[in-house]
Amino acid sequence: MMRMQEEMDVDGPKPIAWRPVLAVVGGLVVVLLAFAGRYGAHRDELYFVAAGHRLAWGYPDQPALTPLLARLADEVAPGSVWGLHVIPALVVGALVLVAALTARELGGGRAEQVVTAVLVATGIVTLVLGHMLSTTTTDTLFWVLVVWLTLRTLRRDDPRGWLVVAVVAGIGLENKHLVAFLLVALAAGVLATRETRHHARSPWAWAGAGIALALWLPNLVWQAQHRWPQLELAADIRDEYLTLGGRLEFVGLSLVLLNPVVTVVWVVGLVRLLRDRTRRWAQPVGWAYIGLVVVLLVTGGKAYYLAGLYPALVAAGVCALAATRPARRMARLVAVAVAASLVALPGALPVLPAGTFADSPWAAVGEDQVEMIGWDVFTARVAQVVDEHDAGLVLTGSYGDAGALEHARVLPPDVRVASGHNGFGDWGPPPDDERAVVVTGFRQAPTWMRGCVRLDPVDTGADNEASQSPLFVCDGPTSTWADVWPQVVHLSA
Fold this sequence. Notes:
This protein is 61% helix and 5% strand. It is mainly α. The strands form 2 sheets. A 5-stranded mixed sheet has the order 2-1-3-6-5, with helices on one face. Strand 1, helix 22 and strand 2 form a beta-alpha-beta unit.
């Protein structure tokens, strides 16, 4: 194996290890594409496709970028689960490449870049995000890009770099608002570090802030026009997770997000960022991580919100360990880390048959995969009930059910799908119709529906959202849809 300590010149970055790093990236993408078509789409992905076909500058629960990507995937390969999962595979491939470039920015040579790429590529959260198109998948890439570009700007002490940071951050804010937290945390870190605080006085930094805000503005306007529904959703998440159990879960998941072995590496990296006197310019990233951990613990945030900071911490840790350990010991570290991820692989990727996975202990830790199982059975059963009762509408309590029915294209053209959940609530109410209504996603028949007959839940082969509620066949709403729609509409994460 190549020597781990290569010309540790702190004055400039080493050459980029293009071939081995791209080999790691390519291997990850190939693995993800090999499993991309297994099981089905996640309920959130199905919702994003539905939102993408109703393009807007915003939705109650996210900005426009991820629904736009889902729309593009569905246009290229209509109804294809594999086509939908190509995008996250490519996104995390780019994420791993930027992680290697971050190691280079922190002084890492070829070996450090490659080791960083391997540890990030085989991390559990990387594999999970690479199999599912979500706002978190793309948000993580934007965080990694912002951190890397921030380090480039600070190392070169060239404030013009803030313009590039701003463009990337502004686009990221059109995907998820969490990028704003990262920007504030990095700005606080820059101010807290003596060697970097002069950047706060630079007109380039303030111009960058203006650019990011301008790029974010269309979504902010949409949110304001709709009375800031994302604040209501944030409060819902806070109420669910701001408990002792939720905070213990935050800490526990933070320690295994990549895997426990890599946790040791990023902890070393965090210490290095805060204590290495030869690279004080990188210290703001360490302070940003600590600050965000405190903020999220206090406000009830989720552990995976910080996924985009870990690649930089891993890169810093690899560089620190490489400076004091021989290549053989680093090779063993990589081998153990990869083995740790392989143990958890069935919970991250659909490597097991769906039925085997659903009945295994992995289902308890792979909740996202559980929600990908059985949509074909669910939509087929709903279509059968619609046909048997000559229904003209399917009303769902969840955007997942509604998105699945639209994506599967199993209903007759004259049968509408509606829901009051999040974005679907904005797209209703449906037109009044004398025909029957099939209702899904409610534990009991809604009080604003009349003449409801209960049918058994759909056996999807897994204990997931689609199988947890019965079906109902109802005569219709108790009044017009326009009158009852305020009772139907609801926001939840």
